[in-house]
Amino acid sequence: MTATDVRGLSIATIADGVRSGKLRARDVTEGYLDRIARLDRALNCYVLTDAAGARRRADAVDAARAAGRDPGALAGVPIGIKDIFVTRGVETTCASKILRGFVPPFESTVTQRLADAGAVSLGKLNMDEFAMGSSNENSARGPVRNPWSLAHVPGGSSGGSAAAIAASLCAGATGTDTGGSIRQPASFCGVAGMKPTYGRVSRYGVIAFASSLDHPGPFGRSVEDVAALLEVMAGADPLDATSIPAPVGRYRDACRAGKDGLQGVRLGIPDEYFTAGMDPEVEAAVRAALDELARAGAKLVPVSLPHTKYAIATYYLICTAEASSNLARYDGVRFGHRTKDPRTLEELYARTRGEGFGLEPKRRIMLGTYVLRAGYYEAYYGKALRVRRKIADDFAAAFTQCDAIVTPTSPIPSFRFGERMGDPLQMYLADVLTVAPNLAGVPALAQSCGFTKSGLPIGLQVIGPPLGEEACFRIGGAYEARTEWHRRLPADSAMSGAEVAS
Amino acid sequence: MSRIRPEEVREIATLARLDLSDQEIERMTTDLDAILGYVAALKDLDTSAVEPMTHAVPFDCPVRPDQVGTSLPIDEALQNAPRREASFFQVPRIIAPSAGDLPSAGGTSEEES
Amino acid sequence: MSADKYEVVIGLEVHAQLSTQSKIFSWSSAAFGADPNTHTDPVCLGLPGTLPVLNAAAVESAVRLGLAAGCKIRQRCRFSRKHYFYPDLPKGFQISQFDEPICDGGAITFRLHGERRSVRLVRIHLEEDAGKNLHAAAGVSFVDYNRAGVPLCEIVSEPDIRSAEEASEYVRAVRALVRYLGICDGNMEEGSLRCDANVSLRLRGETKYGTKTELKNMNSFKNVRDAIESEVKRQAALLDRGERVVQETRLWDAARGMSAAMRSKEQAHDYRYFPEPDLPPLVVSDSELAKARASLPELPEDRFARYTTSSGLSPQDAGVLIADKEVAGYFDATVAAGAPPKRAANWLINEVLARVDDPRKLGAADIAIAPVALAELIALIDSGKISGKLGKDIFARMWTERRRAGEIVAAEGLAQVSDTGAIEEACRKVVAANPDVVERYRAGNAKLIGFLVGAVMKETGGKANPKTVNEILQRLLAN
Lengths: 502, 113, 479
Description:
The complex is a heterotrimer of chains A (502), B (113) and C (479). Chain A is α/β, with parallel strands linked by helices. Chain A is 38% helix and 12% strand. Chain A has 16 helices and 11 strands. Chain A has helices spanning 11-20, 25-43, 51-66, 109-116, 159-166, 183-188, 223-233, 251-259, 280-295, 311-326, 345-356, 359-372, 378-398, 424-429, 435-440, 469-482, and strands at 46-49, 78-82, 120-125, 172-177, 192-195, 215-220, 266-270, 299-303, 404-408, 444-451, 457-463. Chain A has an 11-stranded mixed β-sheet, sandwiched between helices. In chain A, helix 9 (280-295) links the parallel strand 7 and strand 8. The longest helix of chain A has 21 residues, at 378-398. Chain A is globular. The radius of gyration of chain B is 22 Å and the shape is flat. Residues 97-113 of chain B have low confidence and may be disordered. Classes of the chains: A alpha/beta (502), B alpha+beta (113), C alpha+beta (479). The interface between B and C is large, with 50 and 81 residues.
């Protein structure tokens, strides 16, 4: 298959095609590898492509099918793996210098499940270093460019994943969402992505940034693709003590149910999420989406999430404290970067870490170390944990009035490179619409709902109650059945031939 | 009104084992000061009646049966070691450990060879 | 002596390495002594992306220990992260318990100079052990992570201990307790039981605590006692000179008989504790608690009480018996098989224990002399069938030949002759053959009866009951 043939293919088309024999997994994979070869130079989505491995895996799927064995629910579907997922025998770096050369001797639960389902990994995807960032400008492997405009950021931290889906450099991708890192890049790149309920997807083998806030999840071109991936990724894992034992839902069915309309569904609209400084085009697109959902039969009800204004402060206190702890293991002793010729243990640690971490991880480690200091704990971290409960209670109260909450994903569309790098606080404040569901642990789906006049994507966010993924997918499916945004593709011509300027 | 001074930033960098240049210390001081200023808004919220939320899961700690599984073959355990000597990970000599590094938990792990 | 004007205040932290099969948060073996870095897995190595999963047996051990020590079991407790940088600590933090330990309060009871002592506990909590650093020459150290992740129970006492000797007895009591429960083998030399001491002095009558130092690296009961004694002397000398005790950590050097201060870089340990996010709160249900309670064996101090009262044993003997659960069990079984307690204790302590290198071997199914067999031997002696001396010989043979006493006696016709007729005949023979001895005996040399008894024993091939011989000779010679 050619690079053109695979452009915009859905996961269902590929999997059904391979399973039925109409398509050969190897052909599909070659198509995507071809696209990567042509276009990724401009985008820098992949930090590592494993063409030989991908071909082997695709051939194995074809052989299984030919032998009459079940090739899996995602048979032959080419996927990209955010470089935060540990992959056995394949370098895993979190886009950081400090993990360069780390070749894990074990596999993450998520990537194992995807492989067992017949998916074909094409390689590891670029990201903000240690998942810290909202623009993929914090990568030690260079920034990722937005396929819709190379001068604009793809969002972050799963920038590589979102951009790769948008540019059809894979049909599905994995990401992680700690404060919006799946949803925001999905919206900046015009694709779909989901942060599931906390614990719905195993974190075993997901390199930790903030343990109580990290959510592994899927990216796809459409919510139906996202649903297909989530069905395979989700489920209890004995290796993760925070993974939920509940059975995995039928997410694709929920999407299809949406096609029949949303009669009886109440959608909560929180005033606090339509902020004063919002981009007017974003607001217009989201309000138009709400109208569309109402036309599908949903009832729009106002709800209030009064503690939203404290969400960013709460988030940055908790995530940096946990990050300072999770990143303490990077010390040059057992893996990764090690400073040259340290004379003492102190030099080993301080120089290795000083050399190996980028500015953003250092900043967050510093803040996290500060707030956990004896004497400061109650004022900062302890306080944040209590406000967190208030935020979670806000959602619980709102969900007594509605079945799902619908909001914009980001108050602004994508921005230009360098625009926000000077002021970390400004960067953090852009997460205001995504962090609260991480704090509460509730599921949230992002999908495309329009474009700005200049052609930048705009995203819609559908937040559900705990283990309410089906509600999100029903609404997302209903929206996609009535709109065409998810079918729009960026032009290949804009991406080929251009180099990524560092 | 600064919430944090360079001296304290240096202390934290030491606690966190981060070698920072003078320039980085200066930058960090400004950044942390701004962020701490922002997060101070939480002070205004009355949370006296609220329990801390440490986990977003509603269940208790699961336990696993006491069964031995397969350990890593030694070469895999050591395969990423930046410095290795025979079956060990190698680090610079730990001289007269300081009390700040060796707390009472777990007891002394020093052994003379 | 200057040390008398001060009251010694000691608190102990004992770490017991739990004898579970696997580690506390991962599946590698927790066994001691393997080749370096062969008992590791991604979790205990702290590789990126790994997560802890709690071992049920570690929880059970901690609960049983808490119940045995009379603690309040916290049915909802938490794990915390304790941060410090050291090569043997892979994650840069230790998973421990900070503000909500699994056990609160409790006490360890034992005897000191015959008096019952009870040292209160602050708490007991679960945590993971660190790996081991080995020093080599030439500027490098080596790290072995086999021990990283092995479960530990940390037992923290109140500063109720008042002497080095008491401290040593306290550790001995803790060791006995964990061995009784079967949760730890209590081997201080191998490091499965470790002890740190906090020592301070204050003037007698003073209620405020003095500055304390922390003592580490005491790996035997003797070292605990010597190290603390040395530290008390050192602090007393300082205070006598008007100097102050510096709060510091000191390492005991047994070879040199002194402790040395560790260089202190930071004012205080700032471990930056916070609740472990990867482990939800741990709940111990009522039924689990009941099951643990029901599983407790008779504890050392309860056994001691029983042995010294209803069994009538001396405190010394009772003390020896309770030191190991297997020894006490052996004793109980011997008594259950019919042996009088004092006799059983005697044989057990003087003969059985002398023949094993490890008292715990008394619990083995294949022990050379089972309690029932010992009881049988004792019965043979007490009934007069064999003499005490012969009994000891038979015991030795039972041990090496693995035969029952009755069998040996019957097979070789060793049954003590108690038939008074036969003995009397032998006595008359001896009396007739030794007229001069008899003469001197009757003249007043009473000791000579021994010679005559010996001669009768020889005459009967050692089988006569010496008591009977004595009685008959006395009767014969009285005439």
